[in-house]
Amino acid sequence: MSFMQVKDLKVHYPIRGGFFNTVVDHVYAVDGVTMDFERGKTYGLVGESGSGKSTTGKAIIGLEKITSGNIVYEGQDVTNSRRKRDSAYNRDIQMIFQDSHSSMNPRKRVLDILAEPIRNFMKVTPQEERKRINELLAIVGMSEDVLLKYPHEFSGGQKQRLGIARAVACNPKMIIADEPVSALDLSVQAQVLNFMKDIQEQYGISYLFISHDLGVVRHMCDHISIMYKGRFVETGKREDIYTNPQHIYTNRLLSAIPDIEPETRNERKLERQRVEAAYREEQHKYYDKDGKVYPLKTVSDTHKAAMSEDEKEGA
Ligand SMILES: Nc1ncnc2c1ncn2[C@@H]1O[C@H](COP(=O)(O)OP(=O)(O)OP(=O)(O)O)[C@@H](O)[C@H]1O
């Protein structure tokens, strides 16, 4: 049963121009997308750069103005109340970004970064606030020493964990994760993704997981929409998207995933080496009109050979 629906969401940015700076056109960044979110599940939003994924996430949380469409949360239309600072919706729906560093105030210590959402949304005593901060530290597996540190003192993976701790501070129902691991090394990516999954299992959080990478999404998502130029070209369960993609664009994204099975990877590597070797060899050959092969060393040799053939013909 879904707890939140996004219906026919559109975000169009006006393009201004001309002498009077009037609206001459629009960027149709999001052009009519519909989504259903279920408790404890992960909804993947995948597409190439510029397809409208981030704008969708930001529009849902209230960081972008919606042109038309609706967001219904637990039966209430919240389309216009998303920007109210203290609304239940804003407490329940949180967002984490690719670059957690720039989403944290560099002049604030971890203590204040974690305390901020608690003060905004929980209305608790200072003792309760401190208790919650300690709980958050336990969730991310960090000691109290980190509380007096600043964001720049942490590695990328640690910062992303802190970003997640901040997002879960007020027991959200859903986290919108916009490319949460794409700035991290591969090994750290896996740690952060597993951490997100653990939190989901423990607290029943739903994710809207935004990524350009179908390989990463495969590990995380139950349901996936493929976005292209502001629209969904395909939506379905994870298994269906991976085993039976319907749209050519989905196929293209799938073919970009490096294979993770070691044997297949090895076979692919050998095949690639064979193709590359054959290609290199071809580059050093010149075929005349009758299919006779001449060895060539450089590209200019190719021209010379071709020219001499022409000269011969002209003679
Ligand atoms: N404030 C804005 N004004 C005008 N156009 C914008 C604005 N923000 C985004 N766009 C355009 O909207 C389209 C969708 O951008 P968006 O950032 O949502 O894509 P994306 O799929 O998240 O890509 P990326 O992964 O590169 O962020 C792009 O063409 C982008 O240039």
Overall mean confidence score, pLDDT = 84
Q: Please give the count of helices.
A: 11
Instruction: Fill in the CATH topology of the largest domain.
Output: Rossmann fold
Structure classification: alpha/beta
Q: pLDDT under 50 segments (min length 5)?
A: none
Q: Output the strand order for the largest sheet.
A: 6-7-8-3-9-10
Helix content: 40-55%
Number of strands: 12
Protein name: ATP-binding cassette domain-containing protein
Keywords: ATP-binding, Nucleotide-binding, Transport
InterPro entries: AAA+_ATPase, ABC_transp_ATP-bind, ABC_transporter-like_ATP-bd, ABC_transporter-like_CS, Oligopep_ABC_C, P-loop_NTPase
Organism: Solibacillus palustris
